[in-house]
Amino acid sequence: MTHRERILAALAHQETDRVPLDLGSSISTTLTARAHERLRVYLGLPLSVLAPVMAKRASTVLPDEAILRRFDVDARPLLLGSPDNRPDRDVSEDVMVDEWGVTWVKHGQSHYMNADGPFYHLDEPAVQDLDKAAWPDPADPGRYRGLRERARELHEKTDYAVILNLPVGPVHLCQFLRGYAEWLQDLLLHPAFAEGLLDRCVEVWTQVTSRALEEAGEFVDVVMYGDDIATQRGPLLRPELYRRMIKPGHKRMAEAVKRFGKPLFYHSCGSVYRLLPDLIDVGIDALNPVQVSAAEMDTQRLKREFGRHLTFWGGIDTQSVLPRGSVQEVRAEVKRRITDLAPGGGYVLSAVHNIQPEVPPENLIAMYEAARECEKP
After folding, report:
1. Among 30, 115, 225, 257, which is least packed by CB within 10 angstroms?
2. Does residue 377 have a pLDDT over 60?
3. Above 80 in pLDDT, residue 323?
4. pLDDT (tens digit, 9 = 90+) per residue, 82-106?
5. Which helix (H) or strand (E) holds 232?
6. Is it the case that residue 245 has pLDDT exceeding 60?
7. Residue 253 contacts by C-beta under 8 Å, 6 or more apart in sequence?
8. Among 353, 351, 374, residue whose Cα is nearest residue 363
9. Burial 72-108 (b: 16+ CB within 10 A, else e)
């Protein structure tokens, strides 16, 4: 099978010649800059050229093509450009402001964290406050400049699956714009404001998605976005509140993708088990990162109950096994997840979220070598 055929077959729940592999095709399946540098040093690759930044806020990079070929990775990312009119603006070495007006702060070599936003300081937020904000322009040409050409080149000159990475979803955006705790409170205390904010975020997202797919859709194989709706222990909010407040927007977003006939890869960390029927109903095709260390995320159970509807994308534990396990433990983890998730298709193997600096290069190499060597049951 070609790399593209392998990914598409997994999404269609068909058997593949080997389990498809991902590293770097999305903003949640790549490496941090320091992890990438450690791996390059270990592999003896030159460090003279800096790896391109993938997501500045997460300190992640696009992996070296030599690494991707060594691991025989099956997909490649397609990224939107920065807006011309309101790109991310550096205030200082460790502070930046994005096009939404959210201030991001980094401490040392950590990730950036949202520290302020347009609606942080409202004691009694009202719908009228939304009209006072400066919203991003979905039609800004900087987002789409060269997108079609990059997509065509990936699709026609390689056999890799092309993954269009879209902006984060409305749950994330509302938290960034309003503040994490404040927005959760708004869902109950100020529902009209919370619903209006959600609607504005969904509207920008769907317009960006439609324009991107109009530009490059014929060369795109999978569409991806992330919107965390769970914690380590369970859903971020009660399922009935998700269904009333969040799910309609998620459904609109999925419909914007499905109008172009593309499978939808959705990322949410945490224990999403109790929301999976809703995500299937929304139209999600692939679930990432399959956080196996979270509550109720047993991979045998997930496959048994939802494997007919979902492709699982991820699954290799990054909380304990990859950073602290032995090479033998990493190999055992890979075998376990392939045994649980691969039968009948519907599995793409990658780490549970981005590779952090504490992951030994030996373990990362062992993960991909074991995946290529492992026979599916």
Report:
1. 115
2. no
3. yes
4. 999 999 999 999 999 999 999 999 9
5. none
6. yes
7. 169, 202, 205, 206, 209, 225
8. 351
9. bbbbbbbbbeebeebeeeeeeeeebbbbbbbbbebee
Contacts of 169 (CB under 8 A, 6+ apart): 201, 205, 225, 226, 227, 249, 250, 253
- Of 198, 153, 151, the C-alpha closest to 172 is 198
Domain span including residue 329: 3-373
**DSSP H helices in the chain:** 3-11, 33-43, 65-71, 127-130, 147-157, 170-178, 180-189, 191-216, 239-241, 247-258, 276-282, 299-306, 321-324, 327-341, 361-373
CATH number for 342: 3.20.20.210
| Residue indicated by tokens 């032995």 | 326
The answer, yes or no, to whether residue 188 has pLDDT greater than 70, is yes
Other CB atoms within 10 Å distance of the CB of residue 298: 13
Give the integer Cα–Cα distance in Å for 333 and 189.
44
Please give the structure tokens belonging to residue 210: 């439609």
Provide the domain count of the chain: 1
∠ CA 231-339-235, rounded to 5°: 15
What's the CA gap between 253 and 265, in Å, rounded?
A: 12
pTM (two decimals): 0.96
Residue-wise pLDDT tens digits, 360-369: 999 999 999 9
